[in-house]
Amino acid sequence: MSTILAGTLLLTATGLFSQVVGFLYRMALSRLIGAETMGLYQLVMPVYSMFMSLTAVGLTVAVSTLSARHHALGDNGTVRLVLRRALGCFFLLALPLGAAVVLLSDPISVYLLGDARTRLGVALLVPCVLLTGVENLHKHCFYGIGRVRPPAAVETVEQLIRAGAVLGLLIALFPRSAEETVGLIVLGMVVCEIFSACALTLLFRRHWRRFPPGEPGVGISARRLMAIAAPVGATSLLGTLLGSANAVLIPAKLVEGGMTLSGAMAEFGVLSGMTLPLLALPTGFIGALCLVMVPDLSRRTAQGDRRAAAGFLDRVMSATSLLMAPAMALLTVIGPTVGRAMFKDQRVGELMLPLAVGTLLGCWQSVLSGALNGLGLQGKAARNAILSDAVQLAFTFFAVSRFGLAGFAAGYAASALAGAGLNLASVLRAAQLRVNWLRWFIRPLLAAVLMIVLTYFLVFQRNMNQADEFETKMRAENKRIEYLTSLEKKVSDLEIYTSLFTGEIDGFIKSFPVKLTQQKSLYLIYRMMLDSGIDIESITAGNEAPFYHKGRVLYSEADQKQIQQEAEKEEPLSEIGVVSMEQMIGSKSNYTVHVSGATKDIYKALDWIRDSEEKLSIGSVNLQFDSSTGKLKGSIGINFYSMLGNGVPYSDPDIGEFTFGLDTVFGEFHNE
């Protein structure tokens, strides 16, 4: 028992360190890339989980279980053979599947994930999974023979390398698009997995040199490995499929409920990349406990010691409840405030109570699932996990479009309750164990209630008013500091510097049209259609708003509205007059163009907007695959810009070549 406790404590310390580093990494990542790109990254991760489920997850459990059994019998030669056979099976599965993922990364990103910007990340997942599989097989073989220090040390360094590699690549290369950003994140993961796979392989070889394993006592066939790996892998695969469907459905259902695609992706990014990782901070103990518990129960089961196994499970459940219940209670009270301060997003911490309840139930579910695997009941663990994931998927499908993320939070708690209940019933029957209501539930829940009361009334409530006042003052001071910083440079220095680029600035200003007209905007949209080959079904003109006013760039809607109100009282500038930049007025108008076309034509249209000599930019892009036509269909927002006061005369475009139709705005066209 002392060995188990020591291993658990070591892995717990490692896990908590990894959780803290991972949390700080996610916090920095979310600030660096934003909520929407974080949502895209989270959209890629189900592909990673599915790849791992098909290739490595079941094999890692098989390696841990078989190595523990044969090590207990003193047959280390068979332990080494188990690892070799598992590596062979892994590469036999992973290499052809990885090639298929790379070749099909485009349709996977567009048709399965619903966003073409995930393509690069999906392709780069292949080397990441190959390296992770090698790492995990060696790691679980170490766990099986009771040596937890080597994998614990490697995992600690791995977290630091991952954070440094990902953040370093993003800062150094400064990606220009969301797709490049997601790709660089996955590339950083590849860098850290190279270290982990190489380090664990070398450490394992060093271990065998110090303790020669001898000849295998029994043969290990691929069939024997797969007898254990297949149920676990199938469970993981089905769970991943359900989880992937859930991850894809959440933004889609939020859009169905009335959100924009960008807003839905941002909400999904806040939930999965900020709030849930905050709740996962105290759960490092659970993963460590399961890693030690599974091989230990396998040894006890192989020796027929059911009574000792039952006593061990009783202590495991008591420790899990007593640690996790107060921790979740504490985060329920202080989590929203802490999360908003760390992630700089006011949406962090919403729905904290149901999510905390779901996380606590999920801890029980994970521990009991590990117990079933250790007792050799992988099939029951698989069945219960699939039923639990199905409950979550049902809530997402039916409730999210109506109730928003509150529907997901309810499903999160309900699915964990279903999984924990089913696993508990299976463990009680298999281990001949009785529920210890006092130690498992009553004491931990009383401790959780006490934690809420003490934290809320003695700490949180007392300082809440002061915290609100302090936050308000800090925001005001930060704005003042930003303003003073912007004026720090002397005006004379600025004049000298800008005088060097007077010609370039004048040329840039004169490249703007003097005014915006629907005639000119429609003409440019028509040219885009001709040059790209897309079909335009309708065009919606937005309101014109200022983006530059008398030397000031307007970033917020509040500033734009204020300037519009002030402009109504001012004397308008002449279209043919020339004024200084401090008197010019820049305007922006957005047109929403509803289009359809092949993927390559859509890309041509976006490139046309980007490369146009006119002052245009891409606003929102909301496209989906239409299975009835085989084309992408949706809307593209185009921003048109003008600069009043630059003295450039306006000329009307020639629209004599326009054609008009019923199905599309401009009809069909051809050269005579």
What does this structure look like?
With 672 residues, the protein is an alpha+beta fold. It is 72% helix and 8% strand. It contains 20 helices and five strands. The chain has helices at 2-55, 57-72, 76-103, 105-112, 119-144, 149-173, 178-210, 222-256, 261-280, 284-302, 306-343, 352-374, 378-403, 405-431, 437-486, 491-499, 502-510, 518-532, 557-569, 599-611; strands at 535-549, 552-553, 585-597, 616-626, 631-644. Strands 2-1-3-5-4 form a five-stranded antiparallel β-sheet. Strand 1 (535-549) and strand 2 form a beta hairpin. Helix 6 runs antiparallel to helix 7. The protein is elongated. The model has no long low-confidence stretch (mean pLDDT 78).
Number of separate helices:
20
The largest sheet has its strands arranged as: 2-1-3-5-4
Q: What number is the mean pLDDT?
A: 78
For the record, give the distance between the C-alpha atoms at the N and C termini, rounded to a whole number.
Answer: 88 Å
Oligomeric nature of the chains: single chain
Structural Rg: 30 Å
Describe the secondary-structure layout.
Elements: H1 2-55, H2 57-72, H3 76-103, H4 105-112, H5 119-144, H6 149-173, H7 178-210, H8 222-256, H9 261-280, H10 284-302, H11 306-343, H12 352-374, H13 378-403, H14 405-431, H15 437-486, H16 491-499, H17 502-510, H18 518-532, E1 535-549, E2 552-553, H19 557-569, E3 585-597, H20 599-611, E4 616-626, E5 631-644
In short, what is this structure?
Helix content is 72%, strand content 8%. It is α+β, with helices and mostly antiparallel strands.
